[in-house]
Design a protein that fits this description.
The protein has 17 helices and two strands. By secondary structure, the chain is mainly α. The radius of gyration is 21 Å and the shape is globular. The model has no long low-confidence stretch (mean pLDDT about 95).
Length: about 375
């Protein structure tokens, strides 16, 4: 049996290995240049950003959408990079890699805090840090918004866990307000986090156990939903802002050419395409064009598959709650970018899997740990 000092030492070594391994995997990114695909609009040819942090630039970040998105915190991070390093692409890449390292470390510490399962938490964090599907989010300057939104999102979960576990009212209020602030910063980095309140509810069930595994209470569920109302309010506001800015930029025009059933068909099939690339990440591309129409039988099989996995997760929720939490984390966090509301011409994108795959990693690693017993 591992003593407490030895356990702390093990966790410190794991943290060091996560950081070192991630830096090694992405060491080549500092040699990359700006790409002509969005990097020029975000940094290389954006005069406001290149001037660094200025009062005029800060005001513009909050008042003027960039590339059809309102994400002022991301724009400010690019401005800060330019203030510190100028227009050096290597430095911009290095900052994204450092944020990704921090995300992996926060995820490890979050799962460790919630479950006390050191090795399982480490495996999930390593998969998140080193999986090939996440290269696009880390090594593409224009996707700084992915790593930045995850950074604030994971910190929000960590702070929320402290809120749920502390006992004094003052501590609870402080952690709740801090979690809400971090959530707002995450939304202003990328609207991907609009389904985050549902992730909080999943964590309430497992591993926080605020709903109870054996004695599910509708009254407790109602209380927990009311507790999340400020989070839902922020999500609703960000959804409205995003739809307005995307419509203004013309990003939704491509969606008008696709029937709603074609968009739904692509969405359900994309859930399994992401899973396939998670297991076997080949033929990765910066753009996966939307075919416009999928054969009816493929759509039907995908729908049946999603329903079957979901029903199985619910059936096993009392004995293996991590399966349901991981599966519905994956389904829910992909909703904003799954394509039912189409932005652009892509059918899917590697960068969209940055946060959702955490759910798959949790479910698979915890299941593997139970089988190994």
């Amino acid at each position: 049996m591992i003593s407490r000092p030895d356990e702390r030492s093990l966790r410190n070594w794991i943290s060091f290995a996560l950081i070192a391994g991630t830096l090694l995997v992405y060491a080549g990114a500092v040699k990359f240049e700006f790409t002509i695909y969005d990097d020029n609009q975000y940094v290389a040819e954006n005069a406001t950003v290149l001037r660094g942090l200025t009062l005029v630039g800060i005001k513009e970040a909050f008042t003027t959408p960039l590339m059809g998105n309102w994400h002022p915190i991301t724009v400010l991070s690019h401005m800060l990079d330019c203030s510190l390093f100028g227009a050096s692409p290597g430095a911009h890449h290095a900052v994204s890699v450092i944020i990704h390292c921090a995300n992996a470390l926060i995820l490890f510490r979050l799962l460790l805090t919630l479950t006390s399962a050191t090795l399982r938490s480490a495996v999930v964090a390593a998969l998140f840090a080193w999986h090939p599907l996440h290269v696009e989010s880390v090594a593409w300057i224009a996707e700084r918004k992915d790593v930045l939104s995850a950074f604030f999102g994971f910190l929000c979960l960590m702070t929320y866990a402290r809120f749920a576990q502390c006992e004094t009212k003052n501590e609870k209020l402080k952690n709740y307000c801090l979690a809400l602030l971090l959530f707002a910063l995450g939304l202003m980095s990328k609207p991907m986090l609009v389904t985050w309140p549902f992730v909080l509810l999943l964590l309430d069930y497992w591993p926080l156990g605020r709903l109870g595994f054996q004695s599910f209470s509708v009254q407790d569920l109602r209380r927990l939903i009311l507790e999340k109302l400020p989070f839902f309010a922020l999500s609703t506001g960000m959804c409205m802002i995003t739809l307005a800015t995307q419509k203004q930029s013309g990003s939704t025009e491509a969606a008008g050419q696709l029937h709603v059933f074609d968009r739904i068909g692509n969405a359900v099939i994309s859930y399994f395409r992401y899973l396939r690339k998670t297991i076997w990440p080949d033929d990765l591309a910066v753009l996966y064009p939307n075919p416009g129409h999928w054969e009816a039988w493929k759509v039907a099989v995908a729908i049946v598959g999603l329903l079957a996995f979901s029903v199985l997760a619910v059936m096993l929720i009392r004995r293996q709650p991590w399966l349901a939490v991981g599966w519905f984390w994956y389904l829910g966090t992909l909703v904003p970018v799954i394509g039912v509301i189409q932005f652009g011409t892509q059918a899917m994108a590697d960068r969209y899997s940055y946060i959702p795959l955490v759910g798959i990693f949790i479910g698979c690693v915890w299941l593997g740990g139970e089988v190994a017993k």
